[in-house]
From TrEMBL:
This is Flagellar hook protein FlgE. It comes from Limnoglobus roseus. Residues 196-299 form the Flagellar hook protein FlgE D2 domain. It is found in: Bacterial flagellum basal body. Its main location: other. The lineage of its organism: Bacteria, Pseudomonadati, Planctomycetota, Planctomycetia, Gemmatales. Residues 9-36 form the Flagellar basal body rod protein N-terminal domain.
Amino acid sequence: MTLAALFSGASGLAANSTALDVVGNNLANLNTTGYKTQRTLFRDQVYQLLDGGSAAGVTGSGGTNASQLGNGVTVGTIDTQFTQGAVNPTGRSLDAAISGNGFFVLRSPTGQLYSRAGNFDVDSSGFLVEPSTGNRIQRTGTAGEGSATLPGFQVAGNNDIRVPIGSGVPGVPTSNVTFRGNVSSKTAVGDPAVNLTPIQFFDSQSGSHTLSVSFTKTADNTYSVSATATDATVTLPPTSVTFDTSGKLLSPASLAISITGIAGAATQTVNLNFGTPGQSTGLTQTGDATDGAAVTQDGSGSGTLLSVSIDANGTIQGLSSNGRTVPVAQLAIASFNNQGGLIRAGTNTFSTGPGSGEPLIGSANTGGRGAISGGALEGAGVDIAVEFSRLIIAQRGFQVNARTISAANDTLQELANIIR
C-alpha cells in the first residue's frame, strides 16, 4: 500500500509540474500578439479492483459496493482557450486584428499555417508577409486582379498578396461635370456668349484637357449652349437651357456631350449637370452678375500607389497620388469546425490537426467569421489574475504530493525500524 502511495505522489508531482509549466508559458506570453492561453486538465489513472462487490441476495441480504484503489493522476489534456484578446490601436496601416472568429492564412515552405497575429509587413519583392518568418499572407476572392477601370495588382491563381507601393494607378476618364452659380438675367437677347468658368477633364489615357462652356441668350429665360475643349472636338445636341420666372432651372437637368478627336484616346461622353429643376442647387438666373462655373468633375489623371489601409471586410485599400482609392487585395480568413483541434506550430501560428477539420476559407464578416480592425493588433488573451490563481493551485498541488511521498517514506522507514 505504501508503495502505491509513493507512485501516486510521484504522478501528482509530474502532473502539477506540467500545470506549472503551462501557467509559466502563459505568463511568459503576456505580451505576445494574438496569443491564446492554454490550461491543464487532469484525469485520474487506472484503478486496481480490490473487490468487485455483489448484488443483493435473494434471501434478503444486502449487496456490497466495489472496492478500487487509484494509481495517481496524469495530464488529461492541455487545451487552448480561444477567448477574444483586447484590440489595441497601433496607427500602423499594415496591422490588422480579427474581432471574432477566424484566423489569418499564411503560406510557409512546409504548408499552410493560421494565425491571429496581424503584424504584417511588405518584403523586398512587394509581398505582404509575416516579418519574423517571411511567410506570405494569403488572399481570397478577385479583389485587386484588375478590370477595365481598376489596376491589377494580383495575379489570378496566385493567392500571395502583392502590395506594390509606387506602382502606377491609371486615371479615370471624366464622365460628369457639375455646374454651380448664376447666369445674369440682365444679358440681352443675342448678346455675345456668357462664358462659364472652365474646368479640366481627363480622357481615356489620363490626358488632361480644358472644357469651356458658354451660354447665349436666345429668348427670355432661354439659352443655347456651346462647348469647346483643347485638342478635341465637342458635339452637343440642339438643346436649350431654360429657367422659370423666379430664376430656378426648368430644364434640362443635364446635357450629354460627345468628345472626339483626342489623339490615341477613345470617344467619350460627358454629362454636363446643371442642377435639379425647380431648385437653386445648380445654375440659377438672377439679376446678379454671372459667376457660373464648372465646379467638379469625376475623372482623374494617372498616379502612383502611395499607401494602403485595411477595412472591416479585410480589403486592403490603396490610396493613389491621383486621389483614387483602389482595392489591392482581400485578406483570406479561415474558420474551423473545431478550432480547439488546431496544433500550435510556434511563431504565433497554428496548423491543422486530426480534430480540427479542414479550414473554411473566405472573407471577413461572412460565414461566421469576424470583422477586421485595420491599424490595430489583438493582444494576448492572458488573464493575470486567473493565471496567478492557477499558479497557486499547481504549486499547492505539487507541495501536497511531495508531502505524500514524504509520509510514505516515513512509513517505510518505520517498517524498516521494526526489523532492527
